[in-house]
Amino acid sequence: MSENKLTTKEYWETYYKAQHTDRSHIVKVCSFYNQFWDKLVEKKNTNKSLIEIGGYPGRYLAYLASEYGVKTTCLDYNSNVSQIEDAFKTMGVEDYNIINADFTTHEPEELYDYVVSNGFIEHFENFDEILDLHCKYLKPGGKMLIMVPNKRYLRQVYGYLCDYENLKLHNLKCMKQSVFRDFANRNNLITNTLQYYGGFPFSVHQKLNLFQKIIYKGVRFIFKGRVNNYLIKHPSKYFSATLIGVFEKPKD
């Protein structure tokens, strides 16, 4: 399945190479999704098992281990595990596991109470197949949380104008609720939550020319502050940053 990947190992190792993670940064980024973590992990400090698919550089895993008391495993093919280890160290977590492997070919050696996938499936052409592979890791009675960016509608136009290199690394076809409803039906999963979330993300991943700077500053002026605060409370598929689903596998 590797030929269906839109990114490479080298891309991700370079992407996070200059990132410096401290505790306040991890907490700020990860706690933004607390309402969804609460739906995934209903009872804290039970030491249940959780795996993140494509978990590099580890900040979500470190946060969940620290704040929710789950025993976490990171599955990722990036060879630089030091970033993952640093995230756990920053959050004071000592009990964790790292599986350095390619998810598309790896066979799970155990099942987990929780499976998390954040910003992963949209980097594949065959996203339905990748989604289905997630179920191989989930225990009966377990829960799965999947997040993908929402780069359709206004964000797609904005991406073409100001962030095209990043846009083309994402498969926009998977960024629909219907994709996840079909996924749940195929795999006999219960859908607990499926919704868009967040404000409009105006940050870009490239240097901007004068024309692009004008667009960027205009979009930033419109959405930063009140408009994005409104969108967080009233999410929209046309503007909100993320599509999030929480699913449950029935017990045998």
TrEMBL record:
It holds the Pfam family Methyltransf_23. Coiled coil: none annotated. One of its GO terms (molecular function) is methyltransferase activity. Keywords: Lipid metabolism, Methyltransferase, S-adenosyl-L-methionine, Transferase. It is an enzyme of class 2 (transferase). One of its GO terms (biological process) is methylation. Its EC number is 2.1.1.-. InterPro entries: CFA/CMAS, SAM-dependent_MTases_sf. CDD domains: AdoMet_MTases (cd02440). Belongs to the CFA/CMAS family. This is SAM-dependent methyltransferase. It comes from Winogradskyella litorisediminis.
